Amino acid sequence: MKNDGSMINAFVPGQGGLTENESRLVERRAKTLGPAYRLFYKHPVHLVRGEGVWLYDPQGRAYLDCYNNVASVGHCHPRVVAATAAQAATFASHTRYLHETVLDYAEALLATFPAELGHVMFTCTGSEANDLALRIARAATGGTGIIVTETAYHGVTQAVSGFSPSLGEGVPLGEHVRTVPAPDPLRLPGDLGTAFAAGVQAAIDDLTRHGVKPAVLIVDTVFSSDGVFADPPGFLAPAVEAIRKAGGLFIADEVQPGFGRTGSHMWGFQRHRIVPDMVSLGKPMGNGYPVAGLVLRPEVIADFGAKARYFNTFGGNAVAAATAMAVLDVIRDEGLQQNAATVGAAFRAGLADLATRHAALGPTRGAGLFVGQEIVANGDPMAAEAAEAARIVNDLREEGVLISATGPRANVLKIRPPLPFSLDNLAFFLDRLDKVLARTSVKSK
Q1: Mean pLDDT of all residues in 102-123
Q2: 378 and 233 co-located in one domain
Q3: Looking at CB atoms within 10 Å, which of 43, 75, 172, 229 has the fewest?
Q4: Which domain holds residue 408?
Q5: Do the beta carbons of residue 262 and residue 367 sit within 8 Å?
C-alpha cells in the first residue's frame, strides 16, 4: 500500500461502532466544519481534558499520548498556563509598539542557536514561517526552484501546500517544485549522504535544464513524513553543499524535531553539524498556543528587509512571547532535552527487545523522543505492511495509547510523545504494544 497523501489513520464515516453521542458529534462536525476535515482513528477519540502526557475522555478514561508534539512540555503545563494568563490579563498587542517581552524572548531563543543565525521573525504557525521563508529566499537568490523530499510536509498555505507532497494528489505541486527520494538507508545504495546529495543535485540539474534557478532545499531534519530518518548524523551536509553551490539556500524545518526533541541537541540540524540559512519553528514553541517563527542569517534578510515590510498582527505579540518564554524555561529547568535523550534511548532498546519476539517489527529509527518503527511482513525490512500498521495504531487506541503512522508506504509507526514522557510511561507503552502485536496475523519469530 502506497501512501496516496490522504490521512493514513483516518476515521471513515458510516462504518459504525460509535456511541449515540459520538455519532451526534460526527454529524455536527460534518454540518458545521465541512468535508475537508479528518478525524483520527477508526473509532474517533472524544477528548475533554489533558494533563502531562495523558489525555482524558468524558468518562474519565486516560489515554497515554505518544503522538502530540504540540504540547511539547506536557498538556496544560501549569507554568505555561500561568504565563499565558498573566500576560493576557496585562497587555496583548502586536510588534509595532515597543515592548520588552518579545525582545526578551527573541534574545533567549536566539541564544540556543549558532551565532550565525542572528535574527528571528515571528509568525502564528509553522506554515506561515515556511511561507515567509520562501518569500525571503526568492528575494535573496532571485530563484524560484524548490526542492523537497517525496513525502514531505511543510504546511498548508497556498504557497507551502505546493511543496508539501504528503498532502496528496488532490493538492498539486508547484511547477517549480522538484522532489527527491527520502534518505532511506534501505533504499538508497552506498553512503547515505552521498546518495541523498545525488538526488538533490539531480533536482538542481532538472530545474536548471528547464530554465528555473534553484532557490531552496527545505527538509524536516528528521524527515518525519517520509518515515523518520535521523541517522547517521552528518548525512545532510553534502546536500546542503550542493544547493548552496547552485546559488540556493538551505531551510531547516524544525517544526517537529526542534526544541530538544532529538535529545542530543536543541535543534535537529545540529546533529548534522551544519548551520542553515533559515530555520522554521512551529507547533512545540507555545505548547499549544499559536506562536511560531523563522530564525535566519542577517545577510539572508537584508535585501528583503530593505524593500518590503513585514507585519503580523498576532505573530510575536506579548502573550505569544510570554507563553513561548515559559516553554523555553520549562525545557531548561525540567531537563526535558536530557529526558528525551535518556527515555528515547530506552524506547529504541525496548522496541528492539520486542522485535526479537514479533516479526512485524522491522527497523527502528529516530533520535530522542522521535521514533519511527517499521511494520513489515515476516521480518523482511523491505516488505511494508500498511494494513498491519493501521491495525496496530487502532488497537493501541483501544488499549489507551495514542500514536499514528507515516511514510510513503504508510507502514511506519510515528511516535513522538510530549517531552516529559518517563520510563514508567515507556513501560506502559511497551506492555500495550506487546499485547497488540500478539494478535497479529503477521508471522511471529
Answers
A1: 98
A2: no
A3: 172
A4: 20-73+335-437
A5: yes
